[in-house]
Amino acid sequence: MTFDYNKSAATALKLITKFGASATLIKRAEGAYDPATGSNSITETSYTVKVVLLNYRANETNTQGSLIQAKDRKVIMQATTVTPDVSDTFTFNSVTYRVVEVKTLSPSGTNVLHELRVSV
Q1: What is the SS3 string spanning 1-48?
Q2: Looking at residue 61, which CATH number applies to its domain?
């Protein structure tokens, strides 16, 4: 018997929508090369997403070798609209965070949710 991960994804979306809030994810993409400036242009696209913003527990930030900094936050994001990347930014309650790490819970190829580590 196969497990239906689409139901898990629907439940995750329902809970994030119920207990979370709207935020803006700004995806940055490299555009065409401009010979006049010697660099590629950057385009930004904004997406409204549902998220739950959490603090890391003290034992997650104080462990030896942990990359998590004291001001980092954990974001649980819906997996239905767009997949965030490390180069993106995330705005919640007028605070802009930089996406530092992205983990996608994706059993059997079904995206259930994204867990982001963001930093001010």
Answers
A1: CCCCHHHHHHHHHHHHHHHCEEEEEEEEEEEEEECCCCEEEEEEEEEE
A2: 2.40.10.270
